[in-house]
């Protein structure tokens, strides 16, 4: 089954790393039309030079602008919500702006999707939304809650909402990989703490996980992939084995280890071979929606330091092939 075939799909933040990769994939899956919704006209111009396909439409707009979302969502079947302020430092320094984009923007997307009769909405989340310690994570946790609860506001409309949550994306704009690659010419790479661990996923894997869950979703789930962990110091060694390592200390709002499922969520989470589903606590939610899933043990938590799957320095080369 191909959930995108003959559908009109809109991607908020469509000029970002995920958006571009998702659109590239969607064009091979028989979409009727793809709408790129973003606020940066230069990035849209550059994307037009890269993608030559008559099915793509470019909408300048901001998720903060509800009226523009209503116009853009007219006739849309599926929305992928990837627009966000995502840099921890920027969110800490501009907290009101982060709230406007990540929380108010989420509410605008929800209301426009319901009123415009969009069929399915998947919102992208982050491991930083699980037990957040910084404003970015807190705004994304609020966003996740809004999208899950939106299913209770639909009424007799057909719209369903779900969330996909995963970890660091290899090679995405602003991530540690291009940063390390850029500064390795100095001969030194800064590491905040040699014990630091992170979840790791490629753009291709992230896109495929969203596509898979567009098929699976009933509305209200938070989908979490089983992905490997890596030590940041191993990543540095993989990118620039010739460089010296400088320990600079953990920055404000940064965790030593990340989490995607904590004990309280685990009580209503089920496990499948390659992913977890955090189930919504709705009266109408049926256990049949998660048939085949395994109930997690008491006290389970899915964290980057206690993960069973780890990448070595050598595996990081292969795992992020083409990123370095």
Automatic annotation (TrEMBL):
It holds the Pfam family Polysacc_synt_2. Gene3D superfamilies: NAD(P)-binding Rossmann-like Domain. Its EC number is 4.2.1.-, 5.1.3.2. One of its GO terms (molecular function) is UDP-glucose 4-epimerase activity. Residues 9-279 form the Polysaccharide biosynthesis protein CapD-like domain. It comes from the Bacteria. Keywords: Isomerase, Lyase. NCBIfam families: PseB (TIGR03589). Belongs to the polysaccharide synthase family. This is UDP-N-acetylglucosamine 4,6-dehydratase.
């Amino acid at each position: 089954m191909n959930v995108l075939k003959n559908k009109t799909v809109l991607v908020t933040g469509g000029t970002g790393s995920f958006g571009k990769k998702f659109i590239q994939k969607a064009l091979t899956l028989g979409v009727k039309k793809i709408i790129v919704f973003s606020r940066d006209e230069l990035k849209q111009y550059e994307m037009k030079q890269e993608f030559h396909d008559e099915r793509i439409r470019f909408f300048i707009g901001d998720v903060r602008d509800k009226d523009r979302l209503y116009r853009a969502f007219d006739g849309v079947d599926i929305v992928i919500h990837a627009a966000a302020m995502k840099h921890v430092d920027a969110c800490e320094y501009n907290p009101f702006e982060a709230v406007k984009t990540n929380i108010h923007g989420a509410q605008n997307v929800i209301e426009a999707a319901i009123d415009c009769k969009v069929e399915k909405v998947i919102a992208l989340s982050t491991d930083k939304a699980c037990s957040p310690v910084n404003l970015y994570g807190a705004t994304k946790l609020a966003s996740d809650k809004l999208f899950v609860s939106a299913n209770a506001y639909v009424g007799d409309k057909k719209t369903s909402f779900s969330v996909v949550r995963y970890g660091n994306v290899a090679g995405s704009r602003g991530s540690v990989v291009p940063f390390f690659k850029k500064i390795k010419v100095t001969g030194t790479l800064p590491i905040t703490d040699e014990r630091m661990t992170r979840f790791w996923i490629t753009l291709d894997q992230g896109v495929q996980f969203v596509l898979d869950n567009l098929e699976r979703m009933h509305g209200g789930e938070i989908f979490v992939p089983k992905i490997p962990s890596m030590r940041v110091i191993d990543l540095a060694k993989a990118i620039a084995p010739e460089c010296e390592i400088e320990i600079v200390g953990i920055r404000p709002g940064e965790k030593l280890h990340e989490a995607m499922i904590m004990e309280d969520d685990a009580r209503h989470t089920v496990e499948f071979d390659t992913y977890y589903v955090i189930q919504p606590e709705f009266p109408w939610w049926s256990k049949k929606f998660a048939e085949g899933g395994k109930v997690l043990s008491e006290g389970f938590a899915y964290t980057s330091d206690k993960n069973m799957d780890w990448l070595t320095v050598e595996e990081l080369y292969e795992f992020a092939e083409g990123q370095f």
